[in-house]
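Thread: quick sanity check before group meeting

JM: Hey all, I'm pulling together slides for Thursday and realized we never actually wrote out the predicted structure for the chain we discussed last week. Dropping the sequence here so it's in one place. If anyone has concerns about the input, flag it before I start.
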Amino acid sequence: MPTAPTRKTGRQGPVKKLDLKSVARLLREYECGESIASLGRRYGVSAPTVKSWCAYLGLDEHWLKQVRQLERSNWVLSKRAQRAETNLKAATHVIKRLEPSPKRRATYSAALQAAFALPRQQTNQICGISRTTGQVTMQHDSDHALIGLMKKYLHENPGAGFKGMFNVALKSRGYLRSDAIKAYREARLATRWRKKPVPVPARIVRRIIAAGRRDDVWSIDFLVDALPTGKRYFIFSAIDTFSRECVACVAIGKATGQAVVDAMELARQSKRLAKTLHSDNGSQFKSLVYEKWTAMYGVKRHYSRPYHSSDNAYVERFNRTLRDEVLNWYRFKDLVEVQRMLDDWRVRYNMGRPHMSLYGLSPLQFVSLYG
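JM (edit): ok, ran it. Output follows.
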């Protein structure tokens, strides 16, 4: 009975396993210029095997042994690390499924620290909670003094941010910015922040030229707010663009041209009169009463471009400060309380409140030095 023909394999003869001494000799011969094919035929190994050994060119038998042992140890350690990482993920998954509450898992983390003397970060990772959970924050006496200074400044200047507070009150005392901002965040002194950045529209830049002397240009505007009863009222403000001094800050029930004239007349009676009044295009600033008063005392009128509040940026920035430091912090019963608070705040604003644009000086301090 005929037998089936045998299939020939691609490799003829037994596969040889070279020792390190033969490998070192093979590498030296390859460095001398012998081809991979001839070396494979002579040593009885395939060409890919010779190519794999070429990664160890330049090593003798001793160093080949050392490198192979290191590779073996590295392979074993990597396998153990993969197995440990898999076990850790499995344990974390089981703990999360059995105990969904992160607060209770924090107690498990503390128990693991006590039982196995493991670091907090490692036990937190096992229990599936944040690495910083359970961290104890220590504050030194210097931190308490720094936080006290910041709280005092923010109490006197509500609504102020970290940048202005550091440059005005902390930098001159020798505090580092990194230490100050760390204490500022730990004490949670920031009142509010934006979660999402507000897109800034494209705009045409128009350079604002500040006044060169006191009472050259005043920026005037109305700010609207409401009492707890829902009744609206207006605050008329006049700002000297040279010194940022608040010349007038009056609470009124209705924004009219006569209200503007009355506020300007009070400033004139106190021997203050501007050469130019910069305002927006509101009807109050184009009324006959207002135009007649400015013509009577030779005051020039300057108007912003329509729908460009940035042209009158000085008083707009003052209105923001007024809202942040007064209107958003207090509740008033009537206009009498509003005017009383405005008068008190205006004195402190002009005499003691530092301004970044005035090199950390208050408006009256700036006038005494440069006015």
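AS: nice. Confidence is low (pLDDT under 50) at residues 1-15. The first strand starts at residue 217 and ends at 226.
JM: adding both to the slides.
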